Amino acid sequence: MAGNGSEPRRTVTSKVVAIIRSFDPGRSLTITEVVQVADLSVSTTHRLVHELAAWGILHRGGDSRYEMVQPLGSSARRDRCVDLRAVAASTIEDLSAVTTNDVRLGVIDGYQVLYIEKTHGGRPLSAFSAAATLPAHATALGKALLAFAPPETVDHVIQHGLRSYTAATVATAARLRHVLKVTRLRGIAVARGELLPGHSAVAVPVFGPAGEVAAALEVRLSDVSSEMPTTVPALMIAARGLSRELGRVGGPMSPPAPVVPAGGPGERAISSAQVAVPRLADRLGRWRDRR
Questions:
Q1: Nearest to 58 by CA among 86, 28, 82, 87
Q2: Residue 107 and residue 142: Cα distance in Å, rounded?
Q3: What is this structure's pTM?
Q4: 3 state SS of 261
Q5: Cα distance between residue 79 and residue 139, in whole Å
Q6: 141, exposed or middle or buried, with CB in 10 Å at 0-12, 13-18, 19+?
Q7: Least enclosed by CB within 10 Å: which of 32, 161, 228, 277?
Q8: What's the average pLDDT block by block, 10 residues per block, for the chain (291 residues)?
Q9: Contact (CB, 8 A) for 202 and 189
């Protein structure tokens, strides 16, 4: 019978292989369908599928269907990063110019963050590379990504270990989950000296055409208290504009609702920012006119 079969006599490796072999190129399956194809129990399939998703081998879509992910070093993955960089380049350049600070854009890569960076007043925008990675739990960029990522992604980061880089690093599972909950409520992530002493930053998520978190934008801060009031509104405008750009590139679906409630303090801050930072608002804030 499908879902039972000879599972008790099978090794964990053979079960994983059976699951992976269930996915033909371009094929997506629900967990129930994987149970039938791989001839495993529901509990075993559920556990292994979630672990494979956490490792980035399987991808879970919004309809709870899973599909194989191309290897991280594949041309398909490189092409996606190149496309993202091309779409985001002008946004990152403008955000750096407006905030007069370094700006990063990152994506989740396993338990780390793969990023590109624009150093204010310095080198041109960098490219995604294997050397450009950051720990997800110890950076604003990573926390903005994890806060809106699938639960299994957070589980994978925790299982890999939460290294303490400074006394301020979020280094326990309970504390990280609390920080991510707060980040989801506020719509922004802040890191103060968690990776390097004296290194602070604020980040917000960027959403893709299906409403999934596609990336995050981060601005480095020299003085958190004095720079946050002007940096956060500019960062939100940039993230919203980029989310809408990714929606147009990816298909007809729009990005999710704004990261701050309409009419709330964040919305009023964005309205003020459109006066305080007109250059960025002119380039990225046209979403407001199209609503």
A1: 28
A2: 8
A3: 0.64
A4: coil
A5: 25
A6: buried
A7: 161
A8: 55 88 82 93 92 76 74 57 85 93 92 91 80 91 96 92 95 97 96 94 93 94 92 94 77 37 41 44 46 38
A9: yes
DSSP letter string, 117-138: EE-TTSSPP----TT-EEEGGG
Amino acid at 166: T
Chain CA centroid to CA 277, Å: 26
Q: How far apart are CA 248 and CA 246, in angstroms?
A: 5
Cα distance between residue 18 and residue 44, in whole Å = 12
Q: What are phi and psi of 72, to 5 degrees?
A: -60, -30
Q: Token pair for residue 167?
A: 């006394």
Spatial distance between the Cα atoms of 182 and 200, rounded to a whole number of angstroms: 18
The DSSP call for residue 105 is E
Radius of gyration, CA atoms only, the chain: 20
**Residue 58: both structure tokens together:** 């399987």
Residues 6+ apart with CB under 8 A from 69: 56, 57, 58, 59
The DSSP 8-state label assigned to residue 21 in this structure reads H
| Measured torsion, CA atoms of residues 28, 32, 37, 39, in degrees rounded to the nearest 10 | 150
